[in-house]
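Quick start: read one record
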Amino acid sequence: MIQIILGSLLLSLIHVLLPSHWLPLVALSRAEKWTRSQTLQYTLLLGLAHVLSTVGLGIVLGLIGKRLASELEFFAHLLSPLLLIILGLVYFSLNSHHDHHEHLPSEKELRRLKPRTVLLTMAAAMFFSPCLEIESYFLSAGAFGNSTIAAVAGIYTFITVIGMLLLVNFTLSGLHRLNLHFMEHHEKRITGTVLILTGVIGFFAG
């Protein structure tokens, strides 16, 4: 169970740091001359929209994992870690400099829209692009019961929403300049590594 919690924590941190999750908000804030308060309110709404779809799908997968665990005794100790490793290998092999994890439309795309539709467009983009990588942890969490599913959901929700708010706020303040070029171009490789390590640890922890 510990490896599932730690894995979901690491993956949530990796994803919230990616500029594609929050940097377009900063650019739009400056272009549309939003106040800091408005920008943070919009960030909160978009973060919650993203979390809603990701956690909603995750809970469904977690319940499936719970059922599998009750019907297949080896699910938690063998099948679940194996699924994490396989998914990790897939992500690792998919890494490409031209294949990034995008959620928000680009500033150029959004500037074509009327100001009133910008927020709704961004919210829809975030809602309909859940982080599929974290879903594997919900499936594995199901083997350990509802409390572990809730823990993964809580970790992902807290890190995503608070992380987006902090990163947008710090960037607007000009106090925080992160060089995330490496993470942006190697996201799938990093994600794959975390999934593989979680699965390997799961074999021994089981």
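The chain has a mean pLDDT of 80.
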